[in-house]
């Protein structure tokens, strides 16, 4: 896992002059920045020797000039560019004139006293751009992307070691099932578990089930599975619990439809012998989402899935035309999902 290797290098004081962090996983980006700061400057030095810039506010050439300036009463300084959209196809409304050519000579010969961190918190880079190629060639690149299930389990182990708690592999997997793969959320849940078990303690399956709240996505998974299996009482109870948590019924309906469509797509691709890896690329979904869907669709009939999506459209229409109150309408739709599970098709 690329970023964990870089974290370990930084903690050994092996700090590179320029880092290029790109991707949407905010926790990875923040942890990289925090580790660089902690292992480069003392708290007192950080006040005078950490500069943060946004391209939307400051010309790139001025940021490079700052990077080329010696630190103030310190052996090191850190310069951070927060939103490097120049490496993407994203348009920006700013009228600031960026001299992109000022970056190349600096990347080839960075100031030894400066650590430059360039952040592109976007899903995709524009690989055709010269600046993107320069960054990928002349910097230490860390892709802050969603982790696979295996990588997430490994990451939980690293975080558990830092927190001084013991988490067995089955408990790690349960944690991911409940909290999802968002690292910020997982770190928060692990911290909660540490407070419960104490430093040096073991986090049990019972503790995770008791302490960790399901994500909305996981609740949707469970709700559909219970409904399609005819376990209506459990499905309705799940829905009412989501409403008690202040989840908007229309949002729940939208997510139900999204999940049903994912199931339908995965079902069709599975029948055509596509692998889960191929499905991830085609559907642009997280590998963990595809893995769960592939496991669940085994017991789902394709015609029932299509009928369920049509029933959801009818429910949405009834709500938006004022024919049915939204909470009642979504609950009725969940009951209909259960009815579909018992219907036979020729």
What does it look like?
With 346 residues, the chain is α/β, with parallel strands linked by helices. The protein folds into three domains: 2-143, P-loop containing nucleotide triphosphate hydrolases (Rossmann fold, 3-Layer(aba) Sandwich); 155-211, Helicase, Ruva Protein, domain 3 (Orthogonal Bundle); 216-341, Zinc Finger, Delta Prime, domain 3 (Up-down Bundle). It is built from 17 helices and seven strands. The chain has a five-stranded parallel beta sheet with strand order 2-3-4-1-5, with helices on both faces. A two-stranded parallel sheet has the order 6-7. β3 (77-81), α5 and β4 form a beta-alpha-beta unit. α11 (216-228) crosses α13 (249-271), α11 (216-228) packs across α17 (326-341) and α16 (302-320) packs antiparallel against α17. The mean pLDDT is 89.
């Amino acid at each position: 896992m690329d970023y964990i290797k870089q974290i370990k290098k930084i903690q050994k004081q092996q700090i590179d002059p320029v880092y290029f962090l790109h991707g949407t996983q905010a926790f990875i980006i923040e942890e990289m920045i925090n580790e660089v700061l902690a292992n480069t400057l003392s708290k007192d030095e950080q006040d005078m020797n950490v500069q943060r810039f946004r391209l939307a506010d400051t010309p790139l050439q001025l940021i490079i000039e700052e990077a080329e300036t010696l630190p103030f009463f310190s052996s090191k300084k850190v310069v951070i560019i927060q939103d490097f959209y120049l490496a993407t196809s994203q348009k920006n409304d700013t009228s600031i004139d960026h001299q992109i050519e000022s970056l190349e000579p600096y990347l080839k010969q960075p100031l030894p006293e400066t650590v430059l961190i360039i952040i592109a918190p976007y899903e995709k880079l524009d690989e055709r751009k010269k600046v993107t190629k320069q960054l990928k060639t002349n910097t230490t690149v860390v892709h802050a992307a969603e982790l696979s299930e295996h990588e997430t389990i490994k990451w939980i182990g690293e975080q558990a070691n830092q927190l001084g708690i013991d988490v067995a592999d089955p408990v790690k997997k349960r944690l991911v099932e409940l909290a999802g793969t968002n690292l910020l959320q997982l770190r928060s849940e692990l911290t909660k578990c540490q407070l419960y078990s104490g430093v040096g303690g073991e986090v049990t399956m019972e503790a995770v089930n008791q302490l960790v709240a399901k994500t909305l996505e996981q609740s949707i998974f469970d709700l559909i599975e219970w409904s399609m299996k005819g376990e209506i009482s459990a499905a309705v109870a799940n829905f009412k619990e989501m409403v008690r948590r202040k989840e908007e019924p229309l949002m729940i309906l939208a997510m139900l439809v999204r999940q049903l469509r994912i199931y339908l797509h995965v079902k069709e691709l599975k029948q055509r012998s596509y692998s889960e890896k191929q499905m991830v690329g085609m559907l642009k979904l997280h590998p963990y989402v595809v893995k769960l869907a592939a496991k669940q669709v085994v017991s789902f009939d394709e015609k029932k899935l299509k009928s369920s999506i049509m029933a959801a459209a009818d429910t949405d229409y009834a709500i938006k035309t004022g024919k049915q109150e939204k909470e009642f309408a979504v609950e009725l739709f969940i009951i209909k999902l259960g009815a579909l599970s018992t219907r036979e098709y020729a």
